What does this fold into?
Amino acid sequence: LHLALVEPRAVHPFAQKIALTYGFASVGFQPMKLLLARREGLTVFVRYFGDALKLRKNNPHIIPEVYPLAKLALENCGLTSDPVVEADPGTYPYDDRFQLDELTDDGYATLLHFQRGRVTHREIFGPVRLHHGLFRIRALQSNYLLARENGQIVGAVGFSVDEVEKTLRIFELISLSERPVRFLLSEMLRTCIPLWGIEYMEVDVSAYAPRMQRTLLELGFLPAAYIPAMVFHEVERLDGIRMVRILLKPEHEGLDLLPESQAIASLVLRGFIDRNVIPKIARAVPQIPLFAGMNDEQIRQVAGRCTLKTFPPGEQIIRENEAGEETFILLEGEASISTGQSATHVGTVGASECLGEMSYLAHARHSATATSQTKMETAVLPHRELDNLIRLRPDIGVIIYRNLATGLGKKLIRSDKR
It folds into this structure.
């Protein structure tokens, strides 16, 4: 035995405490995986035995969205955080010049040939594989969708469905080339979700396959667990990333988590919150000077650190002489800027501009008070999150500092003219 996994429920801490008592480490959180009276989240714990960690392949290649989770999980397991972050690995292209089919006896023989002669670099892991035999695959209620080109099989995706739990798990992807990969994944989502009323989906993807990670992210999957030395492949043990897609609005109430679980859960849930925040910010990006000069990947990194917050008319957003911990990016509405005890009006800040950036740039308290004049919607960027991002991504830091300083200068010039 090299590795043991346990998934304690997140609504009470008893199983989590037992896992910690017996040497398990917290590595993930899966929101709404279990269907009981309602959908519940499960934590993920791992423990290693024998030569498991000696056989671990070092320096996994991961996308930036996975890094914070990977770092925390590795540290929880007593390992050095050694991932190589690939900012823009690209994705598998979508090619729809294939016919979709289901696995039959003749297709099984063809895929088995692919498996033995073509597949050397596994990107998706699972408990069921073709060499288990077609009868066993069917007995386990597992399925394969095939991609055919000119009548010939060129790829397949394997998945299992639990109709009671309304869950789907992808366990294998076989392809003769890169062309059918995204087609197979996209068609599986398109056909299976309405057919079985799927509410929760998961896949274990290699931590050494950033292109597959990025493709799954674009298809709506988010990192939920990082499991070092998860699978044995050839002569090494490979890290795995459990990625999850939830078809319902994620809920995070009623959790009873230990501190070890809470840190991981907060990271994972933040990803699902970001899934709603990023598109809204992205629509406003062309008008927001803070993002000027950034590429799409850099914009996602900054937007992913933001949350949305709405202010009614007349509410104070920042107060003069208070410590500044957040910068606000105005998406809609206007704010009045005032100073001194008499609240002397010195200017107005409108949509696409920032509030609170002076306190960040100068590491000082707020120099003015900002009050919403109209209903305001803002993207809130915590200074701690911004510091962490700049530490990891100096390329983004250079652009942010330049844009913040430029925007601040324009506001000061405008204020002087008044």
The CA atoms of residues 94 and 183 lie 6 Å apart. Residues 259-284 form the longest helix (26 residues).
